[in-house]
Write a structure and sequence with these properties.
The chain is of the alpha/beta class. It has helices at residues 18-29, 41-53, 68-82, 105-133, 153-173, 191-194, 199-209, 218-228; strands at residues 9-13, 33-38, 58-62, 87-90, 136-141, 178-185, 240-243. Strand 1 (9-13), helix 1 and strand 2 form a beta-alpha-beta unit.
Length: 248
Amino acid sequence: MDLGLTGKVAIVTGAAHGLGAAISERLCAEGVAVAVVDVDADAAEAQASRLREGGARALSLSADVTNEAAVDGMVARVVEHFGGVHILVNNAGFTRDMRITKMKMEDWDSVVDVILKGAFLCTRAVMPHLTQQRWGRIVNISSRAHLGNPGQANYSAAKAGLIGFTRAMSLEAGRSFITVNAVAPGVIDTAAVRRLAHYEKVKENTEKTTPIPRIGQPEDVAQVVAFLASEGAGYVSGDVVHVSGGRY
């Protein structure tokens, strides 16, 4: 199926590993030029190099998405290099799990800032470009954790906030034919999840409690992101697509 994305330019944050890497690969397969953005410069360049080896147009950029100047400079560099920007995937984020009585301020601030402030700064930076061309796609990577998980007050709050941000932005941006949606993955079999000491228990529990009895794959999420970025999703906005195997 041709998603009508050939020639478009995408920025994917947190794209060096995991979901971000899978999303960048899927978009490149659809003919999108991708800016692989990550705070880890070496990992970003390694991912961009893999994409270029496959024939894609890819640029690596190191940027802290919580830094206003760094984000503005990153977007300007993408526009300079590729000639524009059409798609933003706000994927940057991480967990620092801890029960609330033991959670430190830096554990709260760092998780919330990267997920929420990062999405705000990146979205604000690309909006003038999307508005001027009257076409754009913003996809925010939330999580099933927006429904709440014990030990994840910081992460759950940030991912729930990202859904509110998505819906507010969809109302602001729609008049310019810009769609804004969120994807909420469940348990996905990324390298970070596989590094968990209790990975086998997580995998077993997921397979037992998920209506579709398997752990999710990064490609499951990437496929949905690609659709939401496509011409075919031009009348879908302000929505949240759960990629969780039916588990809520």
